[in-house]
Amino acid sequence: MSGHASAAEQTDPTSWPTAVANPGYAGDTGEFPQLTEDDIRGLTYVGLRPRDGGHASVAGTLPYQVAEKRPADPIFVGEYEERLVKVLSRYPDRQAALLPALHIAQEIRGHLSAETMDEVAERLQLPPAYVRGVATFYTMYNLGQVGKYLIQVCTNISCNLCGGDAVFEAFLDATGADAGAVSDNGLWTVMEVECLGACGFPTVVQINDRFFENVRPEDVPAILARLT
Ligand code: FES
């Protein structure tokens, strides 16, 4: 599978791979016999979402956050203001663009503090109470600080049946973090989450904006080593 896309590649639509039909489930690669099982459902991440939200199919699913957070930076300036303008152009009104605007804020700041929510409200000219109500409703927004790497382990039914709890414990052991808290070195926050929508590939783990599939407890040290 392809490696890490550079920042330039992520924002250049001409560099994105050509979409093909889903080649199938493990062991049945259909019309793509050259693909191995590892190619399809290997232990590497599935893919990166374009950071500018530029691809129509991911307009509503901007990355949740990146590892290089800059909590002291303003939110909507430079490339981030450009991204917001692009997002706003896709929605009928500012209210409808609130979720992606909050994602951008979280990407930069790492979490949505009350002050951050107020900044988003001001930029979108929405009532601060409305923005706080929306932001606190969705679990994908962090209302408190998280580590450089936010590790979300699915322990919902499909992943649970395939050892999700053991994977969760393995991440806690390997990072030394308490569940939901930032580790002492500031690197890790490990939390259990509900279904990540990839139930065919349990156990599924999302680390910042990447998906890891088929994760087993014994895979955890190698995954962490890749990140640091
Ligand atoms: S149950 Fe884990 S991804 Fe759906």
Overview of the structural elements:
With 228 residues, this protein is an alpha+beta fold. It is 34% helix and 8% strand. The protein has 9 helices and 4 strands; from the N terminus they run H-H-H-H-H-H-E-H-H-E-E-E-H. A 4-stranded mixed beta sheet has the order 2-1-3-4, covered by helices on one side. Helix 4 crosses helix 5 (114-124). It is globular and about 50 Å long. FE2/S2 (inorganic) cluster is lined by residues 154, 156-159, 195-199, 202, 204.
Secondary structure blueprint with pairings:
Layout: H1 7-11, H2 37-41, H3 79-88, H4 98-109, H5 114-124, H6 128-137, E1 149-154, H7 157-161, H8 164-175, E2 188-193, E3 205-207, E4 210-212, H9 220-227
Parallel strand pairs: 1-2
Antiparallel strand pairs: 1-3, 3-4
Helix pairs in contact: 4-5, 5-6
This protein binds FE2/S2 (inorganic) cluster (FES).
Please report which band the strand proportion falls in: under 5%, 5-15%, 15-25%, 25-35%, 35-45% or over 45%: 5-15%
The helix content, as a percent range, equals 25-40%
Distinct ligands: FE2/S2 (inorganic) cluster
Tell me about the biggest sheet? 4 strands, mixed
Mean pLDDT equals 79
Unreliable spans are 19-27, 41-62
Question: Can you count the helices?
Answer: 9
Structural class: alpha+beta
SSE order: HHHHHHEHHEEEH
Q: Care to count the β-strands?
A: 4
| Overall morphology | globular
